[in-house]
Model the fold of this input.
Amino acid sequence: MENGLYDLAAEEKNRLEEKQRAVRKHREETGGVYRPSFFVEAKHPITKEPYWRYKQTYWEERRDGKLKHYKDIF
Done:
């Protein structure tokens, strides 16, 4: 869209959304559970409410070349 390629941007958005839907459907059909790679469920220290806390590992894993084993989201 940045370059005025609105049709191409819309097609790509649709492709990504369809891929996400297919992955979710497969996960639901097989009883799989989604687990975030870079966040962990935690309790807020003050409110005690659950939230997703960033694990602070992305940049180290990227630097060390460990991102190759993650699923292709594109």
Summary: The longest helix spans residues 6-30. The helical segments are 6-30, 58-63. The chain has a mean pLDDT of 92. Residues 37-74 form one domain.
